[in-house]
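Ticket #4471: structure output looks truncated?

Reporter: J.K.
Steps to reproduce: submitted the chain below (100 residues) through the standard prediction queue, then opened the result file.
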Amino acid sequence: MHRTIFLALTIAVVGFIPGPKPANAATLGYYEVFGVKGDDMLKMRAGPSVGYNIILGLPNGTVLRVYSCEQTGGTRWCKVSLKEARGFKGYVSWAYLREN
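Returned output as attached by the reporter:
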């Protein structure tokens, strides 16, 4: 009986009860660049902040595969690749992506 109580308390404290993982729309999938104004382009960068070099400019409508996202400062950055050229990988701001 003591083992059962100890196990139940351990599970409750550690939170080790398996269950569904929270849904995260940015965990894999295809997204489209949108909301970039005028003739401007979304900058794909070498890392998750504006301090990294620009790899490529992406116009509205470009389809990207999103691998993961992370919060850096006030911006959510997503690791992406081009759908049609997966060798081009980098980071873009989540604010300019919508589900494709």
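Triage note (M.O.): checked the attachment and the full token line is present. The chain has one helix and seven strands.
Status: closed, working as intended.
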